[in-house]
# Entry
Amino acid sequence: MALQRLLTARLPLQDVPALAGPVTTIAAPSPTATIAMVRDGVADYGCVPIESSLEGSVPATMDALVPVDGRRVQVFAEVTLPIAFTVAAAGALEPERVRTVAAYPVASAQVRLSIERLYPNASFVIASSNSGAAIDVVEGRADAAVTTGPAARLHGLTVLADGVADAQDAVTRFLLIGRPAPPPARTGSDRTAVILGLPNEPGSLMRAMDEFATRKVDLTRIESRPRRDLRLDKTSAGQYRFYLDAVGHIRDDAVGEALRALHRNVESVVFLGSWPAENEVGSPPPDTAESVDWFTGQLQGET
# Structure
């Protein structure tokens, strides 16, 4: 992925420590590997896809955001980009000679119809990432790759088709993640995300969501994923983690109150971060300044 292009073009560098100057990019084969490199200190920050407008959330990224050995990562920024792919091969190929096409599952879902039209004899081979698809071609595991222009150039591939996408308005949202640090400053148009561990009992999810609802905090995403231990590649049958995105910033009183209540009342809360939302995400949390002023006045004995 062209991380430097994403950073310099769209992400708010002034709010992210260590990104105001030149950025050195490091290749990683997958979102899981990218997040592991950040958690282990191999990279300061990583850019990973979290949500496709066509296919929804990216499971590999969601699973990798879960803390490992108590070490969490944190989101500092986001960017939403229009998505179109490059199809590349080791050399020039006639369409009928393309039999296998390496593609990351999220990518293949966004170009399936186009690939069927361009290469009617081809079938997909699962790749670990968009850049991993290019490596699969280099190492002879596929005739062609659904990848990106920079990855094709990096690995010396020949571009067979460019701007490939089934839907011209398809977009993917990316997150910039790093190790824990103070969140970027509140902007008034922010997103806060958490991962919840809830007791396996009736009403536990509803009670968790009520902590936001009673404070008029808008939830824009609620998803579950099986509880998975990435180190052992094992899941716990019937056990789930819940991912919630809320409108607002941890420094907004209503959001902060909801998070503190969750910490008191659920099994676990993983704070994924508060960061500026690139697009309008929903109803902002209520302004509590007047009630805070009233309460402070009562403490001070005002009439």
